[in-house]
User: Fold this.
Amino acid sequence: MRTLPVILDVDTGVDDALALLFAVKHPAIDIRAITCVAGNAPLGQVVDNTLRVLDAVDAPLIPVAAGASRPLLAPARSASHVHGENGLGGIELPATRRKPEGVGAVELMRRTLMGSDERITLVALAPQTNLALLLRTYPEVTDRIERIVFMGGSAGVGNATAVAEFNVWHDPEAASIVLSSGVPIFMYGLDVFTQVSVPQDAAAALAAGNDPLGRVVGSLLGNRIALSEDESLVYTGLIGDAGAVCALVEPDALVVEKRPVRVELSGYGRGQTIVDRRRYSGEDRLHGGIGDWTVIDIALDVDASRYADLFLETLDLAG
Ligand code: BDR
Ligand code: CA
Assistant:
């Protein structure tokens, strides 16, 4: 029974596509709406990719809306070196006949939240521009949000820069607004994102197999990024954003800590999520207070093979 109502905010995106497929197929997840934002690809491409992925998994009824075409302050920047020119690693899904909703992402989120009897979980798999605009435009929705689960940030190294993860780096002001919104927040960052992968031989077998969905999933998992062979080895096979959706249904596979976090907004550290992992109060806390830090739940470790298995089993693709 679909007991977990969610709104997914995506920038589809190779691994957003994997997350969408998983979320549609998981029997506990009730997708009430999908909203799109510029990130991995330009907005129009993100919307088109999202609709094509939903067609591929036969989910024609979930409303999809287009949102922000650029971050709050910064210009939009491409991630085509990771996600290819079409945002799906060059994989061509059949063209869609569907159109997005006639209202924008913020309005679709507001209507969905206010029209629901139950609180809804917002799952942000992309730069958080749409969420920040929603929370600023309609603060009354805050009480209708169960929590925000976001893929983004890192307690360790970054990927877009040495310290900043792509989604937060792309729109740090938006991430900062969301962090300070008062909504309970769960961060599924690079610390766990980079751990969950499907072995390359299994992905290759799916890509070459007869199952239509398996071919799509195998091809997405086999996406290789253009920057360097080393980087490809780190990323190829990752289920990526789909791991954040796994976290909704099997949270006990994660090691989670409550930690103070802030988003750095300037200098080289722009976009970094600074996570205070000290077990003691330092000089800053003793003398300056913890001011603009927000205490959130952070996933710091994961039973990676459990999530990889959950992903494949849910899609009915386990060997
Ligand atoms: C995040 O950025 C994008 O490349 C992925 O879709 C994921 O949401 C990882 O940093
Ligand atoms: Ca994404």
The first helix runs from residue 14 to 25. The chain has a mean pLDDT of 94. The domain at 4-314 is CATH 3.90.245.10 (Inosine-uridine Nucleoside N-ribohydrolase; Chain A).
